[in-house]
Amino acid sequence: MYCPLESAMTQPKDSSDQQLTDALAPLRAEIDALDTQLIHLLNERARCALRVGDVKRKFGAEVFRPEREQQVVQKVQDNNPGPLKNESLATIWREVMSACRALEKSIEAAYLGPAGTFSEQALYAHFGHDVSGVPCTSIDEVFRAVEAGTVEYGIVPVENSTEGAVSRTLDLFLQTSLKISGEVALRVHHNLMNRTGNMADVKVVRAHPQALAQCQHWLTANYPHLERQPVSSNAEAARMASMDDSVAALAAESAANRYGLHIVHAHVEDDPHNRTRFAVIGRYETESSGSDQTSLVLSVPNKAGAVYQLLAPLAANGVSMCRFESRPARSGAWEYYFYVDVEGHQQDAPVARALEELRRNAAYFKVLGSYPTSR
Ligand SMILES: O=C(O)C(=O)C[C@]1(C(=O)O)C=C[C@@H](O)C=C1
């Protein structure tokens, strides 16, 4: 039997090039024919989404439906016969839905900028690339932009697996009437980068305080002499490094590309499993997708057993708690706000029952939102 690979290894280059071309030609023709079919199918899908858009306009309904997008991705993965990985299909379908959604309506979403931050990455992971990202200089500004209606959605960091809660975000959740409509969990890699690719002239390393903290052991072991200077974001640090050879930045690869920097050391975070969770905030109250969680803020009077009693309705109704975080209430009386995530949607009967009991027992009670759990 003729084997193109075996014969290619023994033939002079010109003839093996020709054999390679001949062997690839029918396969590439097959790919071209499949692409033609995919283009037709994708446009048929897009026309259908346009009709969905007409119906939503007629009823004044929200275009972006995180719960439906979650269900679509789930269905696609359930029907996946391989060899494509489920994760790859999820990425492809998020972009397909993003493009279809953009035909229905364009969406603007604020994030902690400048461009090149992990918040921007999280934004595209959630909305796909057919969204207009609006960079903001602080987490407060992201909340303000959504509250003022300048943009429909915002994306804010909530928690890092190494460093814990992003306290400013938790504090702002208390004050806002906005809801959490979705979440994104991102693997976060930090890279040490500068303009020249040579660290000889570098005197300081700049990054967001969380990034400096997430790389502190690596920095101490490898560059103990560098002064560490916190700045508003890693992308801002990268922008500064692009203008000053004495500055290196800790930032994402996308920031190195954006500001023309060289990555001197890649993946320098102390914990290789470093992840950050982001919340999507807006006015839309996400419906049940079948795989959801609910975020709450609670407080109780400062007395013995109060927290234990407060949380008893969760166990009594078989509702699992997946996150518990506390923040001082700043009342000066050792009182705390508790940020609790539970499994399930607030419209699910056991969750609804547990929430009603929690509401009765708590001194302060607020549902931040129910939304599809990120995977
Ligand atoms: O099903 C809808 O509601 C749609 O608008 C269609 C679609 C999709 O492309 O599948 C697009 C946008 C929504 O966020 C959800 C899904």
Supply database-style keywords.
375 residues, 44% helix, globular, EC 4.2.1.51, Prephenate dehydratase
Structural class: alpha/beta
| Corresponding CATH superfamily of the largest domain | ACT domain
In DSSP terms (H or I, runs of 4 or more residues), the helix count works out at 13
CATH topology of the largest domain: Alpha-Beta Plaits
Q: What's the quaternary structure here?
A: single chain
Contiguous runs where pLDDT drops below 50 for at least 5 residues: none
Taken from the alpha-carbon principal axes, the silhouette is globular
Report the C-alpha radius of gyration, rounded: 25 Å
Query: Element order, helices and strands?
Result: HHHHEHEHEEHEEEHHEHEHEEEHEEHE
Could you give the count of β-strands?
A: 15
Mean pLDDT: 93
Tell me which ligands are bound. Answer: prephenic acid
Strand content is 15-25%
CATH architecture of the largest domain: 2-Layer Sandwich
Q: Strand count, sense and closure of the main sheet?
A: 6 strands, mixed
EC number: 4.2.1.51
Keywords: Lyase
Organism: Imbroritus primus
Protein name: Prephenate dehydratase
